[in-house]
Design brief:
Elements lengths: L1 E9 L6 E6 L6 E7 L5 E9 L10 E2 L3 E2 L6 E7 L10 E7 L5 H9 L4 E7 L10 E2 L7 E3 L2
Parallel strand pairs: 1-9, 8-10
Antiparallel strand pairs: 1-4, 2-3, 2-7, 4-5, 6-7, 7-8, 9-11
């Protein structure tokens, strides 16, 4: 089953490139590249839910999914890591896939157009782009149209 996700990066610093990391290791690509201006940035992607629905904790796969089982996440590459060679920033932001339950997946599956959304701070305490693992992470929420 495919699961549609939306990541909203809240008010990131202006003039910085952000993009989803597709793939891993040295052969990854940055896709859905966006330069921040005023306001929020949105990234939409689809991941695959592994077929073992008997387990309490779902597992995920696909070109955007990173990390070990029960610790999966999505990377947003920032500045130089997103290909912006003149940026002073070279960061990545980890968006955890934790908290996505079998129950919310089943709900999303039964509602046409439903997706899961998370909203994360775009600016770190140092005033630059938020990086490392999002903390605090407010989780994923079912959005229906």
């Amino acid at each position: 089953m495919n699961l549609h996700l939306q990541i909203v990066l809240l008010s990131p610093p202006t003039g910085v490139d952000f993009g989803l990391q597709k793939g891993s290791g040295s052969s990854y690509q940055v896709v859905d590249l966006k330069r921040s201006a005023t306001g929020d940035l949105q990234f939409e992607l689809t991941i695959e839910v592994k077929d073992d629905i008997a387990k309490d904790e779902p597992d995920f796969k696909g070109p955007f999914v990173q990390g070990p089982k029960l610790g999966r996440f999505i990377y947003i590459n920032i500045g130089q890591n997103a290909g912006q060679v003149d940026s002073v920033w070279s960061r990545r932001l980890k968006i955890p896939l934790t908290g996505i339950t079998q129950a919310i997946i089943k709900q999303a599956e039964t509602i046409t157009g439903a997706f899961l959304q998370t909203r994360v701070p775009g600016t770190a305490k140092d005033g630059g782009p938020n990086c490392a693992t999002v903390k605090p992470f407010n989780g994923w929420h079912l959005i229906t149209n």
